[in-house]
Amino acid sequence: MEKRVYNFSPGPAVLPLPVLEEVQRDLLSLPGVGVSALEISHRCPWFDKVLEETEGNLRKLLGIGPNYRVLFLQGGSRLQFSMVPMNLLRGTGKGADYIVTGSWGQMAMTEAQREGKIRAAYNGKATNFDRLPTDKDLDLDPQAAYVHFTSNETIQGVQFAGEPATGNVPLVCDVSSDFLHRPLPIDRYGLIYACAQKNAGPAGVTVVVMSEDLLARSSDQLPTMLNYKLYADEKSLLNTPPVFAIYVVMLVTRWLLNDIGGLAKMHALNKQKAAMLYDVIDSSGGFYQGHAQPACRSLMNVTFRLRDAATEGAFVKQAEAKGLHYLKGHRSVGGIRASIYNAMPQEGVAALADFMRSFQKAH
Ligand code: PMP
Fold first, then answer.
1. Class of CATH domain 18-260
2. Which pLDDT belongs to residue 122?
């Protein structure tokens, strides 16, 4: 096998090695089935069990009660930027509030504006999305159909550690880049959505967890393939689902339950990993400068610049020579971004922290 490098990509991203090993082992023939997960029909007992276990694992991990539905959709999280307002606004006569804390939240709001009356309850653009609002910074409409926020802004590296207070207005959250990284008080949410390709599996499937209450809002007039209610009625089998991607999500959720021991343990590990990098930044005397204000720092995407921006290219190149790949920051923020999702091993983060210290010494 070609040697694996440490993959700090923001997504598609690193997957747990035991998951990849199991996929590899069974790739040609699933035990007891005789064909591969890439070839098998979605209407067969094997896939019925995969769907059932994946949903069950997610329910266990997140404590999702029977009054919530779990859907497996396609079109990535960006399709949710449209499906959310189409399903939750039509027929309500109401608008929605968006808390914009980074590029993805901005994009979600812009898409929603094609559908209905949308207000920014907060927009952090003026400070280049380096911080999060406190509850009193929010300009909320108590009559809104929902409030949307982005729990972790993948590009800027700012992350909510809890939920904004929105009173009785249902909370909708794009959890794409921190799904399953900590336990979530799911009852606080009306709907969450996450593309799989960061913390849950490969690209191709998007998980939506939504309350029965909100499901009732989906209008019959919606296009079939954009209607949450129809996906729920058909148990996500409205058309051919991404079988392979869902199978891998099943293995990842199994890994979280059995190998890691649940989301509280995962959260503790994530905090340890992130601290290793933020400690290097904070003790560098300004050589490394974090983008996010300390209180808003992401455990998933660590964003920083070098004091001497001209050395950032060398940083990325030399890191790569050490097996630390895909560290270049997003063009809108610049600098460096280390994405350290659930599956990034502690050793990978330690190797990056060591490299950062030695790079500073050499410069
Ligand atoms: N929201 C967030 C927070 C993201 O990080 C991403 C992907 N980077 C998206 C939405 C868009 O996801 P997709 O590419 O699956 O549409």
1. alpha beta
2. 98
The verdict on the CB of residue 329 being under 6 Å from ligand 1 is no
Nearest to 77 by CA among 164, 170, 171, 154: 154
Contact 207, 184 (CB under 8 A): no
CB 150 less than 6 A from any atom of ligand 1:
yes
Residue 238 pLDDT grade (very low, low, confident, very high; cuts 50, 70, 90):
very high
| Domain segments of the chain as ranges | 18-260, 262-362
Q: Is 104 a catalytic residue?
A: yes
pLDDT of residue 332: 87
Q: Which CATH architecture has domain 262-362?
A: Alpha-Beta Complex (3.90)
Catalytic pick among 97, 130, 174, 178: 174
Instruction: Please give the radius of gyration of the chain, using alpha carbons only, rounded to the nearest integer.
Output: 21
Find out whether the beta carbon of 78 lies less than 6 Å from any atom of ligand 1: yes
Q: What is the pTM of this model?
A: 0.98
Q: Is the pLDDT of residue 345 over 80?
A: yes
Encoded amino acid at 273, one letter? K
